[in-house]
Amino acid sequence: MNVAAPADRTIPFCTASCNTNSLVAIGDEDGGVRLLESAKDGKPKFTTAYLAFRPHANAILDLAFSSDDLLLATASGDQSSQIIDMPSQRTTYSLNGHVSSVKQVCFQPGSSNVIATSSRDGSVQIWDLRCKGFDAPVRDIRVSLEPSVTDLTRTPPNHKMTWARSVNTITEAHANRQPLLANAAPANKATPTLDAPSKTESPGRRGDVSITALSFLPPGREHLLLTASEANASVKLWDLRTALNHRRSRASPLSSTKQPESHNKHRHFGLTSLSLSSNGGRLYTLCRDNTIYAYSTSHLILGHAPELSQPLSKPRRSAGQEKEGLGPIYGFRHPKFHATTFYVKSAVRIAKDNNSELLAVGSSDGCAVIFPTDERYMQRLNHQRMHPSDPPFPRPRPALTRTDSGTGLSTRLEDTIPIYQDGSALVQGHSREVTGLSWTPTGELVTVGDDFAARCWREGADARDLRMGGEKEGRRWRCGWAEATEEWDDDDG
After folding, report:
1. What span, in angstroms and rounded, lies between the C-alpha atoms of 226 and 283?
2. Where are the WD repeats (predicted)?
């Protein structure tokens, strides 16, 4: 895999790939957005910004494109989100409803009008751009990010944007209330590590449980929303049509998944990111215990669950009693994967054309780690370990091996589910924590980190040459590769 990096001295926090082309948006700590060309032979090269503008005066923590790439949604530390018209790079809608930093933003599948945002204030807000809002003058959003250019490019004085209305609000989405489930485990007394604001963000929150990640379910179930928090590893499922329980005068989820049993014996760990598999059958959660947990989306509600059926079921008048969802069914770990902050994210490469599905995660170890997700290999290798007397068979590539625990913190956790640890670390690309990452439609991976760099990783035969060829004539300069065992490179087949 080859890499390149644009020269810059602002820390990039997040990245999002377009859905219809090879451009990638990168948001930084100063509120700027750059679009980079990720195609190998694209013009301009990845090292030069295709387009740059600054929609916020504070850090951009998340980005999301609409399905047609005509709109870009931002989430910022200035407590707002903006909807930007990409052909003109002008803010058309401002989403102002949170009272603390906005952590994540996403479009509802199949819609360019419905957006969900989550915040450190503990709330989730749903916005519909078709609803009438308030007119307001636009702020200056176009400014050169080049140090040599000092003139601001102001938008026309007659240009206006709309302050959108929130159509649904889930307050205290993951607040620490009394257990609603009859067989819920007692609260863990250990204090979890909190999602502390960065130096560029407004503190603004006192006692709220930060909503660190959210995701809509795929088309057909797009009315269902998943949320995660800093408090623990439980994922909540919400039906946006019946989120409010009128008897309790507060929002009520359909269900909450069980936490990993090892957390009940040690301490609680929050989640930093949610990612769905290509077919929507698996949910991958990135946990602060340095583990990625896999859930079955068909078992987010145990027992009779008409809400998860196809086609859409009729909504109930109220959310009713909160149900229980199945806990994780297996997990991934790697010696070079550690999530020491809530900025570390994950992303799934959709299985398409000749590209297999892969799960990529950032790491505080200065690298990204890639895990294959094909469960056929996991089942086969698990069977091999359960029956050591069975005759050997050729080892598949990519292969997964089961381990009882990882390193460091993981060695103190008593796992009750299979943990697989045969991912590949992408080394020499970053020197500090890797936070945001995204997959392009053609299968390239773009990563950003605290070393002021954005990197584009591509598959190809060059990776083997970089691993085996050494440092001769500076051939590895500004390049990185995927770690592999010696047997991998020695195999000519």
Report:
1. 10
2. 53-94, 95-130, 427-457
Measured CA distances, 24 to 15, 19, 361, 445 (Å): 7, 9, 17, 10
Q: Which two tokens stand for residue 23?
A: 């451009």
- Give yes or no for a contact between 114 and 96, defined as CB atoms under 8 angstroms apart: no
In whole angstroms, give the CA distance from residue 52 to residue 55. 10
Residue 14 · residue 25 · CB < 8 Å: no
**Any residues with CB less than 8 A from the CB of 341 and at least 6 apart, and which?**
272, 364, 433, 435
Q: How far apart are CA 278 and CA 351, in angstroms?
A: 6
Q: What is the DSSP string of 157-214?
A: TT-EEEEPPEEEEETTTT------STTPPPPP-SPPPP----TTS----SS---EEEE
Helices (H), 296-455: 375-386
The amino acid that residue 463 corresponds to is A
Q: What are phi and psi of 297, to 5 degrees?
A: -70, -20
Of 364, 334, 368, the residue nearest 444 (C-alpha) = 368
pLDDT band at residue 387 under the 50/70/90 scheme: very low
> If residue 237 lies in a helix (H) or strand (E), which one and from where to where?
strand 236-239
What does the pLDDT read at residue 195?
82
Residue 466 has pLDDT above 90, yes or no: no
- pLDDT on residue 303: 85
Determine the 3-state secondary structure of 342 from DSSP. Answer: coil
Least Cα distance to 176 among 167, 189, 165 occurs for: 189
Cis peptide before 44 (omega within 30 of 0): yes
| Gyration radius of the chain over CA positions | 23
Across the chain, what does the average pLDDT equal? Answer: 81
Is 233:268 a contact under the CB 8 Å cutoff? yes
∠ CA 62-345-164, nearest 5°, is 20
Taking the model in full, what pTM does it have? 0.85
pLDDT in tens, 153-192: 344 455 678 999 899 999 999 987 554 444 444 444 556 6
| Mean pLDDT calculated for residue range 108-129 | 95
Mean pLDDT along residues 265-289: 94
- Single-letter amino acid code for the residue at 133: G
Q: How far apart are CA 254 and CA 2, in angstroms?
A: 45
User: How many whole angstroms from its chain centre is CA 103?
Assistant: 11
Bin 443: left if φ > 0, else alpha if -120 < ψ < 50, else beta.
left
